[in-house]
Amino acid sequence: MARSFDKTLAALRALDITAPKAVDELRDALRSQNGYLVAMAAQLVAQHHVTGLVAELAPAFERLLQDPVKRDPTCRGKIALARALDALEEWDERVFAVGVRVVQLEGPLPQDDAAAELRGICGLVHVRMYRPDLLDVLARLLADPERTPRIAAAQGLGDAGRPDASALLRYKVAEGDEESDVLSAAVDSLLSLAREPAIPFLIELLGKHDMR
Q1: Domain that includes residue 127, residue range
Q2: In a domain, 43, yes or no
């Protein structure tokens, strides 16, 4: 018989990671349909590098994609699972390739998108793990309706260290963005990738802006 939420939560809070049954406790929590419990377990897996539970993380993510607002409000569980896989340096298509496209609208109109942070995290993991489609993924996120994924994409293009990423950054800087943090991240990344050719480009843009 499944334990109650309160009992599982108490067990996780009191968990001794060195205890013989610790892995079983974490596994049970990861298999829960409650995003809060899944998040706590995933954080412990990441913190203590419990590699024996890597195989549980993607299935847990997939469960939280079903009826997501009820099971995982604010995307807390899915975000923690993505962070855990990242911390353990484990790539899983079921999390990162899917996560860059997850949208989770919550609350009264106008609804908030609780999955914005998740998309940004998954985009940056594409960079850290040198995925061949990272530019395609970051290009999509650079045009995301939400600020957080756009910032992540701009930062990720710089972190990728690829000169061919500068074209996307130039386009974003020239196009502009309603959020100054996005533009700042794009400029910083552009300068880190190709400082010498970027400076005259930025000076020209500033000149055009001053003439308006």
Answers
A1: 5-131
A2: yes
Please list, residue by residue across 89-115, b when 16 or more beta carbons sit within 10 angstroms of its beta carbon and e when fewer do: ebebeebbbbbbebebeeeeeeeebbb
Q: Single out the residue of 74, 83, 76 nearest to residue 113, CA to CA.
A: 74
Q: How many domains does the chain have?
A: 1
Q: Is residue 102 part of a domain?
A: yes
How far is the C-alpha of 78 from the C-alpha of 35, rounded, in Å?
7
Phi-psi region of 79 (alpha: psi -120 to 50; beta: other; left: phi over 0): alpha
Sign of CA dihedral 109, 182, 100, 33: negative
pTM recorded for the entire structure? 0.93
Asked, for residue 44, whether it belongs to a domain, the answer is: yes
- What confidence tens digit (pLDDT) does each residue in 108-148 have? 988 999 999 999 999 999 999 999 999 999 999 999 999 99
Inside any domain, residue 179: no
